[in-house]
Specification:
By secondary structure, this protein is an alpha+beta fold. It has a single domain, classed as Chalcone isomerase (3-Layer(bba) Sandwich), CATH 3.50.70. Helices cover 28% and strands 21% of the residues. It has helices at 5-18, 35-38, 48-63, 116-121, 123-126, 179-183, 193-198, and strands spanning 77-78, 86-96, 99-109, 127-135, 147-152, 168-169. Strands 1-2-3-4-5-6 form a six-stranded antiparallel beta sheet. It is globular and about 40 Å long. It starts with a helix and ends with a helix.
Length: 199
């Protein structure tokens, strides 16, 4: 059974706390990309580097009309947890900082009475969150095909887990729950379920 991203975050934090672990963020200074080679634990998510990158990505998506009130949309379709009851997805190449990677912007719609037609008629009324996957440059996270994960609220603020960590970066890397663990199971090995839905 799939859980909401919020429920996954709660269970992840609870499981790690009961095991005596702490979630590390990528919060100080450097990029954190070289830490695996030094034997130190690879940071997971929510630190300064990840949140700054997420803010830059949001601004670039605004300029490309992928988020905001004048956004490009696709046909709404029935979704499932951890995303919304109704979704619309834009999937395309995208350039940020001179790197062209693959961008997937998934709008998550929900609420009492939500339907595909209701979202088509008034998407802003039903928009609950925007979840994004962006395939970054080689070396960002080679274990997981260099995907950067982020969950935004409709106004562009970053969603947070119950510990106040922003859901941006290598979200829940190395655990058996969360964005990476779920998307690793996508058929085709590219971490993208929609590609398989459209095949």
């Amino acid at each position: 059974m799939k859980l909401s991203l919020y429920a996954v975050a709660i269970s992840l934090v609870g499981a790690m706390a009961s095991a005596g672990c702490t979630l590390q963020s990528d919060g100080g200074g450097g990029s954190g990309y070289g830490r695996e080679a030094t034997g130190q634990q690879l940071p997971l998510f929510g630190g300064k580097d990840s949140t700054a990158y997420a803010a830059k990505l949001w601004r670039a998506m605004q300029q490309a009309n992928l988020v905001g009130s004048n956004r490009i949309t696709s046909t709404p379709y029935t979704g499932q947890h951890p995303h919304g009851a109704i979704l619309d997805t834009v999937d395309r190449p995208f350039t940020l900082d001179g790197h062209t990677g693959h961008l997937i912007v998934k709008r998550n719609y929900g609420g009492e009475g939500v339907s595909k037609q209701a979202v088509a008629n008034d998407p802003d009324k039903w928009l609950a969150a925007i979840t994004v996957m962006y395939r970054r440059e080689a070396g960002y996270d080679p274990d997981n095909q260099n995907w950067f994960w982020v969950k935004y609220l409709p106004d562009g603020r970053l969603a947070q887990n119950p510990k106040g960590m922003a859901l941006a970066g290598r979200v829940a890397k190395g655990t058996n729950q969360g964005c990476i663990a779920c998307h690793q199971s996508a058929p085709g090995g590219d971490y993208v379920f929609n590609h398989d839905r459209l095949r």
